[in-house]
Write a structure and sequence with these properties.
Two copies of one chain form a homodimer.
Chain A: H1 9-13, H2 23-39, E1 48-49, H3 52-59, H4 63-76, E2 79-82, E3 85-88, H5 141-155, H6 169-183, E4 192-195, H7 197-209, E5 215-220, H8 224-232, E6 236-243, E7 246-247, H9 251-256, E8 261-264, H10 278-291, E9 294-298, E10 323-328, E11 340-343, H11 349-359, H12 365-376, H13 379-405, E12 411-413, E13 420-424, H14 431-440, E14 446-447, E15 461-465, H15 474-487
Helix pairs in contact in A: 2-4, 3-4, 5-12, 6-12, 7-8, 13-15, 14-15
Chain lengths: 498, 498
């Protein structure tokens, strides 16, 4: 008896199967056609498929191919075997191809996304004077490749697997040792948590220590990334002014907006370059203790101190300070390494160790082992020494170029440390306009006003990164910026720039 | 006139300075002693330091060293120059060394941390039968090192800098191409976001799409990582039961607990191995549209399908499905690579692109370029093919070993795909006890009850990973587990195990 064919032949046979292929390909073609026919309704729910033998004969293909296809469709749930053969599943929802393909009205995203203010434009890494980029062409690439090779050969395939979620123990120990000598940080290796750069370290602080709605203090003007991290944690952000001694919190600030988290860059305020005075440091620690707040100390470029000895970290200033110390190798090594770290206060470790092990996955083990090797062998310190001299020279050259060629009134801030200088301009020179124009010339200063949440007249100027720009370019670059600044002056017609 | 010395000599001279050192070392010693004297109060606030010439003479060191030390202390804020010389700063808070060194009472951590339940114990990567670990010794390590070398040589120092925060464009394109062929995912490269493995991809979904207090559905039993991510986002977690067709959401579930996010593993439910039927898939998409929910489709081990063709992803089932597709190279390549990805729905890209650029930093560019090379050159597909055969053979061998040697009543679940089998045991065999005992023998099955939020009698058993354990070990391992299971039976004295 020929089995009844509920199957409309159009679904399967409107175009012949491509036969110049192997059995696997035949099966895929048949599967796709049947699936399409079920989804678009040509094979009605409850209808029966032909027996595998009959269909194989009708199509001139092997019965095994048909049987395997039916099995696959059954595993997916498109069809169900029953006593009489194979039946098309009655799908409870309308067939999707018949739906309107309209995406749901407004995509519902998290409310916090509206608060994360994106940059107007993102400069290339190699744009001139871009802040935050170290001297990539001076990086000891061959030595780093050697360390990476040694790590791969030394650890072998064993380090392909999951490791310690908090990071390779050898790197955590190397960082603890380095920080103790170089930054006066007091910690055991067990307090060090490896993170994807400073940004993830800050984001971990937010997730470990704050509840939604808690208050977070940020420096104003200050680092944009901390605001993104606090918004992502649904914190209430309170901007606190920065003056020549750094973060300037009054008694009223502590009374009116007691924080759960305080973010600070004490060694070299980003972006204005102030050094947080010792009096302010001690006061900040004392007030944080009193109000149950935690301080996030972001020590982002303190290794590049140009004058005298580096200033020790707040973390090591007093015992058991409520300070989470954040550091990164993005500037001291290179940005795409994505290797940073968080030093937990000793007293916090018991409470956060287990949750961290659930939240983190470790990994990047060869890179971490290579970094440990780089520190242990002294190559890291030697590289830092070379870079410190290079950046000191670049900074002096940039100051000289500004002195000679920046023909608008200005003040220069900072410069104790790091990779950037901040040039303040009178408010009539619109910093965003200058920066936008500069980008067309592949010059990427950041407008100072972009770092402020409550910009004042003083928060106008340009943050100039000298890390990745050769000193011989500074004179022409500053001349160009000077032209652009004059052209951006309120009331000046654009033509005067040329 | 000899300057008045407010400085108590004990602070500086109780032990002589170590003179067999360079000028830098002398300066460091002097700085440390003065700083310590200020912090412990031996140098009182407001007291005056000796003139640099006088101190240099008293100590028998160079005046430059003293002057540089004073400058450093002034930059830190410990002292202030005034008309009469250098004065110790009046620090507003009590000197820290005099404080009690007691850490603040209870460290205030985020409330959500209490909800993240840590694992009782964490097994080593190479413990036998540990779920979720691929066959590390079969990884083509030399080929991967070759790809990495080519990436480093090809991109050179340029890729040391920041790249696209959403990931290397070349890798995003390679993933889009691979997913379209292998998984039926429909996407443009611009929809692909590179993440640190599946865990970060899921965590991004939570941060992009949910507000605190929103409801998230998880499979019960199900993947622990999604619960950690949802807790970290302060979501309300609702467990939804899983049956033989996968996630089993009723009309009542949609009414009573309408979700913002639904997490599902449709290809191979983790850990019980069910395949979400096509009817359920279509219903889930229809209901998600109706209720404004997003579906997170975690396709974690679908590449290792053992029988027939892989089942296509939900993402590509209908146009513009509200599905975020999550994948990882942790199983297909190796865990410590930490490379995963998220495919955004087309309609979501405009809303989340800019916030993602603020939240992410890109990086790991050489590894990403090497991965792109691995996919483009076909090495990835060939590796997958070899691993698929290996895992199929291992699974068959494990089934056979269980059949022969597991001398307690049991049922085996799953096995269409992947790297693990789930063995259900009657409730009288305490799975946590068996797993804890097994760990002493370096055998690391996961107890099934550990995956459930509302465990029923059926959620008792062992999840056995066969990915990283050689087949010849299965018989002795299963014999051991069988003994341990019998010993863990309620009411059985421990001695009967031996």
């Amino acid at each position: 008896m020929v089995p009844r064919l509920d199957l409309s032949p159009t679904a399967l046979l409107e175009s012949p199967l491509d036969r110049n292929r192997d059995a696997g390909s035949m099966q895929r073609q048949l599967h796709d056609r049947l699936k399409r026919a079920i989804l678009d309704g040509s094979l009605a729910p409850g209808s029966r498929l032909p027996g595998s033998r009959a269909l194989a004969e009708a199509l001139g293909i092997s019965r095994n191919t048909v049987a395997a296809t039916y099995e696959h469709l059954a595993a997916e749930g498109y069809v169900q075997p029953d006593r009489q053969g194979t039946r098309v599943t009655a799908l409870s929802s309308p067939a999707p191809a018949k739906r309107t393909a309209r995406p749901p009205g407004t995509p519902a995203t998290a409310q916090r996304l509206a608060k994360i203010r994106p940059l107007a434009s993102r400069a290339e890494t190699d744009a001139a004077l871009r802040p935050g980029v170290p001297a990539l062409s001076h990086f000891p690439f061959a030595a780093w490749r050697g360390a990476l090779d040694r790590a791969i050969r030394g650890a072998g395939p064993a380090a392909l697997g999951y490791g310690d979620p908090l990071g390779e123990p050898r790197l955590r120990a190397a960082i603890a040792g380095h920080l103790s000598v170089a930054r006066g940080v007091r910690c055991e290796p067990g307090q060090v948590v490896i993170a994807e750069g400073a940004q993830e370290a800050i984001s971990l602080c937010v997730r470990l220590l704050s509840n939604p709605g808690d208050t977070g203090w940020v420096e104003d003007p200050g680092y944009r990334g901390v605001k993104a991290a606090m918004h992502a944690g649904d914190m209430r952000i309170v901007p606190v002014r920065v003056d020549t001694e750094g973060l300037c919190a009054s008694a009223a600030d502590w009374q009116k907006h007691p924080p759960r988290l305080v973010y600070a860059t004490p060694s070299h305020q980003y972006p204005v370059g102030a050094v947080l005075s010792i009096a302010r440091r001690l006061d900040l620690i004392a007030q944080a203790r009193k109000h149950g707040a935690w301080i996030i100390e972001d020590d982002y470029d303190s290794e590049f101190r140009h004058t005298g000895e580096p200033i020790g970290a707040m973390q090591g200033l007093v015992s058991d300070a409520p300070v989470l110390y954040v550091g990164t190798f993005s500037k001291t090594m290179f940005p795409s390494l994505r290797l940073g770290f968080l030093v937990l206060p000793r007293q916090l470790v018991p409470a956060v160790q287990a949750p961290l092990e659930e939240m983190l996955r470790g990994g990047h083990r060869y890179e971490q082992l290579a970094m440990a090797d780089f520190i242990e062998s002294g190559q890291f310190s030697r590289h830092l020494g070379r870079m410190r001299r290079l950046y000191r020279d670049r900074q002096q050259a940039l100051r000289l170029a500004l002195h000679k060629h920046l023909k608008v009134p200005h003040e220069i801030d900072g410069g104790y440390c790091g990779l950037h200088l901040t040039v303040r301009l009178p408010a009539r020179f619109d910093d965003r306009k200058i920066a936008a124009e500069a980008l067309r010339h592949r010059i990427a200063p950041s407008p100072l006003s972009g770092f402020a949440m409550q910009p004042t007249e003083r928060d106008n100027g340009l943050v100039l990164g000298y890390g990745n720009t050769a000193a011989e370019l500074f004179e022409p670059l500053v001349k160009r910026l000077s032209q652009l600044a004059r052209a951006a002056q309120h009331g000046t017609p654009p033509a005067s720039a040329h």
